[in-house]
Amino acid sequence: MEHILENGWVLEPAGGLTGEAFIASHENKKLFIKRNSSPFLAVLSAEGIVPKLIWTKRSESGDVFTAQKWIKGRKLEPNDMSGEDVAKLLKKIHRSKPLLSMMKRLGKTPFSPEILLTQLQSKLNANLIKEFAISKTIRYLEQHVPEIRPNNWAVCHGDMNHNNWMITDENELFLIDWESAIIGDPAFDLGPLLYWYVPEDEWENWLNNYGIYLTDSIYNRLKWYVYYQTLLSIQFFDSKGNEKDRVFWLEYLDTIK
């Protein structure tokens, strides 16, 4: 892969689950390199949602590599997620017409609750379906699908883990790792973020910063999607053989109200 860089640059893995991220360094310069990153990275960069895109290159093997500005900063801590800046950046993302237009040009279509639930049921490992908490949650999702109707479709990031949010030393906030992005109900992102990170007595103020009011309809959508996303987490960790995290999220199901 070094041949895509100019002479003198040193490449090293940046970590992560996929092994597709790298750090390129030369003297006092650094770049963040990604192999086959999200195809709409350029729009994310132009919208100021991710660090600035420097260049895109295609290798002889057909892989596409992107280089982004290296930023000095840190990942958000869980207690940072209740901040006004997080709400406002997510509002910007969900209301971005360029992002939605790019996703549609890439052939993406909205994921309705019905489609998501069908896909989830087809993915769940047989051993998980036997778990009482999971079968109970599936029944809840099935029963409430008719009530889950978004007011609008938006580009949703799909993984609200606090480690995907970065703040620079200059106080710029970014949301990175867009491989799970879909067109869906904004509650697809909002539900997990609020349930996992924000105390319920702060939801109304957080959503006001985001630009909406907490109604019964929105509350139901938040609850539906946090159940859905939690089941996805259980399936993921079960498939990876990660018993500790599988049990954590399985027990978390019983805390959702």
TrEMBL record:
GO terms for molecular function: transferase activity. The keyword Transferase applies. Pfam families: APH. Keywords: Transferase. Residues 40-224 form the Aminoglycoside phosphotransferase domain. This is Phosphotransferase.
